[in-house]
Amino acid sequence: MHILTIEGxxxxxxxxxxxxxxxxxxxxxxxVEKLEKKEGLLCLLAVEDEALFGFxxxxxHPDGVFYSWLGGVHVTMRGRGIASQLMKAQHxxxxxxxxxxxxxxxxxxxxxxxxxxxxxxxxxxxxFIDEKGRHKIIFEKTFD
Length: 144
What we know:
Elements: E1 2-7, H1 14-24, H2 32-36, E2 42-48, E3 51-60, E4 66-73, H3 82-96, E5 101-106, H4 111-119, E6 123-129, E7 135-142
Parallel strand pairs: 4-5
Antiparallel strand pairs: 1-2, 2-3, 3-4, 5-7, 6-7
GO molecular function, one term: acyltransferase activity, transferring groups other than amino-acyl groups
Pfam family, one: Acetyltransf_1
Protein name: GNAT family N-acetyltransferase
């Protein structure tokens, strides 16, 4: 397995990215238009034998914090530390360009990701209810 780091929209990987996004997020679509609106998009893709099985997307937030937006691993590949590898690669990449802090949101329904965030040094800083009525947990990590 290797991790590809792509700045901007990963056009060459768009179809498999959209497929795995739908797999991870209960059929939800990831339209190209939504990706195009994310200035400074950073895409990390977990690839093996030219097949995509995990991803992590993020972009700079206007307050100067890097926002780790979306990520997931195909169910058949979970439990192998892939999400952790993607997270570590993302953190290394954003520190290289000067980010001091990363933020992400989590939901109680995705406990494995909550645990992964805590294991990797994130702190819970707040909670809120989103526009769809879902309770969200805000995680932040400051780099040394």
